[in-house]
Amino acid sequence: MVRMIWGMGAVAVSLAFSVVNAISTSSTSIATETTTATATATATATTTATATSTSAAAAAAAAFIANDTSVKFALNIPNENSNNDLYFSISGPSSCSWIAVGMGSDKMKHSLMFMMYADSTGNNITLSPRIASDESEPSHAKDIVVERLAGTGISNDTFTWHGRCLNCTSWQGGSLGSTTNKKASFIWANGPPIALKSNSLHADIKRHSSYGVFTMDLSKAVGTAGVPAIPASNSEGASQVSEKVDNNFSSAAHAVLMVLVFVGLLPLGIVILRFLNSPRWHAVNQTLSLGIALIGVGLGAQLGTLYNRTKGFKSGHQIIGVMVVIAMISQWVLGFLHHRLYKQTSATTKFAPIHVWLGRVVIPAGIINGFIGFPLALNPKLDWALLVCTLLIIIIFTPLLFWGWKRRQAKEIEGNTGEAEGYHAEPWRAPQAQYDIGLNQMNMNMNMNMNMNTNIGGPPPYNAGGQQMPQQQQQWMPGQSSHSYPAQQGTQGCQILGLVRAICSGLSGMVNGIHIFGLLIQMDYEWAKEFRTHPLKLAKDWD
């Protein structure tokens, strides 16, 4: 029994040792496999990194850095290059709207340019290969294919592009040239600091803010194919030839001149004519406005040849601008003709309303065209400045124009307060001084009174139409007003009314006679003698 128990214990112990040994062996195997895998992975990664580093280090490159460090460029030309591929890297500050390097020439014309800018997300880069046909905005070259390679992106406010250009040692209109050229010409440029985010290879760009020319020794670029590193300094044989700052004066001058004309001078011309009532200075202002507008149009036409978006002369801003300027020329000619004829006839002409209405169209059309022009120039924020200027002019000039209008209305009302159609009050009804009267004035009053008695019916009313009134309507009595003349002449009521008025007029004449008689007492005998003949003549006229 004891032996049996001892045997079973020995078997159990042996089994336990076997299990422990198996577990230990398994753990060792797992650990060994893990260690082997880790070592293998580490070795592989190290080998890959080393290989990559070796490849990058081995990639020959010609390198250039602009003096202002706005552009860094490196180029690799594979020594076994049956496909005519090129490897290149470009770097520069992301504060620039775009950065570009061109090769094949020291001018824009026929250069192949690699232009990079932020994509629509602002986190990566769009690279557009472009070719310029002249000193103007380059156009996308559809036949040029560029591949994006690892390391491309925007980091630390810096654009970085690594890429390969397929079969691009030559292109339409140009080529890189011989790889033994120690003074190969390149150009570089960067855009102004504005926001440009686009995935399009045809994205509209603004004119460069700085640009230059540099040369490189292409023999330094020939070597093992690979992406060149961003350079820290110029390679041997690389140097900057020139650097220029572009002020873009034409664009600014075009905007300033046209805003000055349509927001400043033309509204001022209205104020000069309507408020100051000065046709001469109005003409000077209109001539000056037209001259400045023509200069602005010339600058605009020249600018239109520089950008892809305006080369075809199809934009609304350009079309409206030409129409407005043609209207301005027509308005000036009509105003000139109107002024010449007016000086001869002192009457308005058929040109006047056309001149006025052209002005009413030209000014708002020019201002609206300005709001269209700023977005076309990729300066949409300047629309707010134009709006402020326009509102300011409206606030200043509107009260002046309203004041001038009220003044003209008052003059028109004052001119219409007289009698109807050329009729003036009879001289004998004019106000006279009661006590202080000179000889000349007394003589005039006396003669008027004599004439009144000669034709007691009074002078016939002036008819502007040239037609004489019926005989019975011409029997005007002294003191009778043209406004109160009865409209139903010939009726019994009108006859009675005419008789009453005749009596009143007679009494008025008597009063005037007594007044004159009293004045004549103070005069000499000759004046009194002339007066004594008056009653006989008066009686004869009444007979």
Task: Please give a structural write-up.
- It is a single chain.
- This protein has helices at residues 2-58, 249-274, 279-304, 316-345, 351-376, 382-415, 439-454, 492-520, 525-542, and strands spanning 62-65, 72-78, 86-93, 99-103, 112-118, 125-131, 139-140, 145-148, 153-155, 158-166, 170-171, 174-175, 184-190, 210-216, 222-223, 239-245.
- The chain is α+β, with helices and mostly antiparallel strands and 543 residues long.
- Strands 1, 2, 3, 8, 9, 10 and 15 form a seven-stranded mixed sheet that branches.
- Strand 11 and strand 12 (174-175) form a beta hairpin.
- Helix 2 (249-274) packs parallel to helix 6.
- The chain is elongated and about 100 Å long.
- The termini are far apart.
Lay out the secondary structure.
Layout: H1 2-58, E1 62-65, E2 72-78, E3 86-93, E4 99-103, E5 112-118, E6 125-131, E7 139-140, E8 145-148, E9 153-155, E10 158-166, E11 170-171, E12 174-175, E13 184-190, E14 210-216, E15 222-223, E16 239-245, H2 249-274, H3 279-304, H4 316-345, H5 351-376, H6 382-415, H7 439-454, H8 492-520, H9 525-542
Parallel strand pairs: 2-15
Antiparallel strand pairs: 1-2, 2-3, 3-10, 4-5, 4-13, 5-6, 6-7, 8-10, 9-10, 11-12, 13-14, 14-16
List keywords for this structure.
543 residues; Four Helix Bundle (Hemerythrin (Met), subunit A); 3 domains; seven-stranded mixed β-sheet; seven-stranded antiparallel β-sheet; 9 helices; disordered N terminus
Average pLDDT over all residues: 76
Number of domains: 3
Major sheet size, sense and barrel closure: 7 strands, mixed
Radius of gyration: 51 Å
Content-based structural category: alpha+beta
